[in-house]
Amino acid sequence: MRFVLLAALGLTCALPALAADLPPKPARLGLCAACHGETGMAQIPAAPNLAGQRLDYLRSALKDYRDGTRNVPLMRTAIGPLSDAELDQLARWYSAQTPQPQAAAHP
After folding, report:
1. Which of 30, 57, 100, 101 is the most exposed place for a label (fewest CB within 10 A)?
2. Which domains does the chain have, with CATH numbers?
3. Which whole number is the average pLDDT over 5-11?
């Protein structure tokens, strides 16, 4: 019983520290959130979930969309004007989010 109490106390003390490690919400999140959700869980069927994706993958993909290497006009339009620093903020934000289970579609 003592172990359980100590573990619970340790977890309670660690939670604020873990929350402090989350990156700040990017100022340019709005357009992304319209399709991918603010926490990276897609809002529309064609959009992929971004929550919990690898940081290096997201950085690379965002730059490829912006620069036209990945030829997706909607993405290029949405992130075309963003700087490398802004893309990095978005990648950090989405990679730090925790994926959530999807609700089952009802026919």
Report:
1. 101
2. 23-96 (1.10.760.10)
3. 48
